[in-house]
Amino acid sequence: MEMREYIFQNALKGASKWELQQLEGRFAANAKIPSWASIEGIWWPVRLSMEQCSSEPAANYKASVARGFAQRERFVDFTGGFGVDFSFIASYFSRAVYVEQDAELCRLARHNFPLLGLQNTTVVEGRAEAVFSEIMGDDVSNTVCLIDPARRDAVGRKMVGLKDCTPDVTEIVPGLLEKGAVVMLKLSPMLDITAALRELPGEWTVHVVSVEGECKELLLVSGGREIHAVDIQHGKVSDFCLNDRSLLQPRTKWADNVGGYLYEPSPAVLKAGLQDALPGEKLSKESHLFTSVALMENFPGRSFRVGGVSGFSKTEVRKLLTGLEKANLTVRGFPMSVAQLRKKLNLREGGDVYLFAATLQDKSHVLIKCTKI
Question: I need a labelling partner for 149 at 20 to 30 A (CA). Which of 42, 156, 187, 258 fits?
Fold first, then answer.
């Protein structure tokens, strides 16, 4: 039974608003936070808070980053939300403080944290800016701070600049860094990384996190110049890392033709701007597709075995697509949309065949027929 039908059936039976909220929350948590869903007695928030909270894989990754600073002893989450990130990170610290301005989320946190086995945690209700001085005091050198600024304005429009978010981290962060705190900023994947780094003092390590093929968040951690493109698929974490962002150089050599294998970088790699650091030969500046004669293991993205390549004359296309009724179609640096090309090729979506329409460096257009490895 689907979630909506399940909730509707219980509403017909006279369930209260709170009971329906709990049913819906647990249903959503089965997929998003399975370790929480398995614990009896957890209280679930309204739908918006469930949608906005981190998924378990993303929270686990942030916890793995924070664990490297566990010697700092204290962890403070200034924008606690439903507390998913907080709960995964707090267990690595001897003391942890959860800050949240929403009274209902604080109530849920006070109830849930003991059930999650969290000890030595403090729940503080209030806006980050209002309680900042009280919590931090004069010595913050033993503290790791997480801030996830709200990315919507008063009328619900998404904001992507740091100064447009709440709290304004450009006002809070400088003081924290001056006093020796470690700062972790969880930011929108829509944010321009270079622009964000210009708004912040000091050096930052960048983590671009993709979960199941979708870029979910940016994590900026004070100190260092590394940039990580993190792809989490079915619980497995792959990390394509450049130790110094300044070492990234634009690619100047291109593939002469399509080899036996084709590669599509992960969304995290593309968002991080690391595509020119990838192995293999790039088809063109616009395509962001790579090829090789021999199979490259552990490419950070999807790998395909090439079954044929054609131009776009009717004869070539007909020969390449003979007997094919459906395919997964992607365009890269190509002058037509997927919908337009699908109509032109008269193919339905789906199946085991993948077609890539791309532009080579000499501006010629090719259709590449592949199977996923």
Answer: 42
